[in-house]
Write a structure and sequence with these properties.
The structure is a single chain. The chain is 43% helix and 16% strand. The protein contains eleven helices and seven strands. It has a single domain, classed as Alpha/Beta hydrolase fold, catalytic domain (Rossmann fold, 3-Layer(aba) Sandwich). The chain starts with a helix and ends in a 6-residue tail after the last helix. The chain has 270 residues and is of the alpha/beta class.
């Protein structure tokens, strides 16, 4: 148990019994939730973690053979849940961790009561009758740039991902978070993320889900949210007024309200 919690630098706080487990997006860490989690600490048990290779995770447990798919990160989520004896989990995942949450819930649906998927995408590359936002060549170039100079890529990509050019401090924080990451693992995770295709996993999902999409998000455009709503049977789609890819930083109040509305609703969504 200690090793599992240490590996993912798990933090537990809050006064409630029902667990809310927050998982951050690519290149980030649990600190990215600092504007969101206080709104839920009175009523829920808050679990925060750092994905392998990011934040203060213990990278001694990393091997490329083990972490060769997003399922390995989903398995980490399940191991944390087991170590803390969690059940009826409300999972909140940002960006790629939204898909990691879907994989975890498909593997162990009995552990989860709700999924909240913030700026998710099951596939970033366009396909026949599917718009993911990027051509194959775009992703190839992105990964080549990342592999050749990770730090330069981090500085260049952070403003693109964050959006909200009028708030450069958010882009600077994101770039700094990227640069603190373990480069080897960050490169590996980037390839897993941007080359992933989890569209088939959406149809298997049994857990009630909220999809939160932002305006003008170049990473996960609105078409992706509509696709997910169509293919997740028990889901609801909310389009935030927030722009960019990180509403947990740029629009925490709107994000909190959308989550609260979802959690307080007794209606079974369809």
């Amino acid at each position: 148990m200690v090793d599992v919690l240490k590996r993912n630098n798990v933090t537990v706080k809050g006064k409630g019994e029902t667990p809310m487990l927050f998982a951050h997006g690519y290149g980030c860490d649990q600190n990215m939730w600092r504007f969101v989690t206080p709104a839920f600490e009175e009523d829920y048990k808050i679990i925060l973690l750092d994905q392998m290779g990011f934040g203060k995770s213990d990278v001694s447990g990393f091997t490329a053979q083990k972490y060769d798919s997003l399922q390995a990160y989903a398995d980490d989520i399940l191991e944390v849940a087991d170590a803390l004896n969690l059940k009826d989990i409300i999972f909140v995942g940002h960006s790629v961790s939204a898909m990691i949450g879907v994989l975890a819930a498909n593997a162990a649906p009995h552990l989860f009561q709700k999924l909240i998927l913030i700026a998710p995408s099951p596939r970033y590359i366009n396909d026949t009758d599917y718009s993911g936002g990027f051509a194959q060549e775009d992703i190839n170039n992105l990964l080549e740039s990342l592999d050749s100079d990770y730090l330069a890529w981090s500085v260049a990509m952070a403003p693109v991902i964050m959006g909200n050019a009028e708030k450069p401090e958010w882009s600077e924080e994101l770039a700094a978070s990227f640069c603190r990451s373990n480069e080897e693992i960050a490169r590996n995770f980037a390839h897993l993320t941007f080359l992933s295709d989890n569209r088939a996993d959406l149809k298997r999902l049994q857990v009630q889900s909220l999809i939160l999409q932002c305006q003008n998000d170049v990473i996960a455009p609105l078409e992706v949210g509509n696709f997910m709503k169509k293919h997740i049977a028990n889901s609801n789609l909310v389009i935030l007024n927030a722009t960019g890819h990180c509403p947990n930083l740029s629009a925490p109040e709107e994000t909190i309200t959308a989550i609260q509305n979802f959690l307080s609703s007794e209606k079974v969504l369809s």
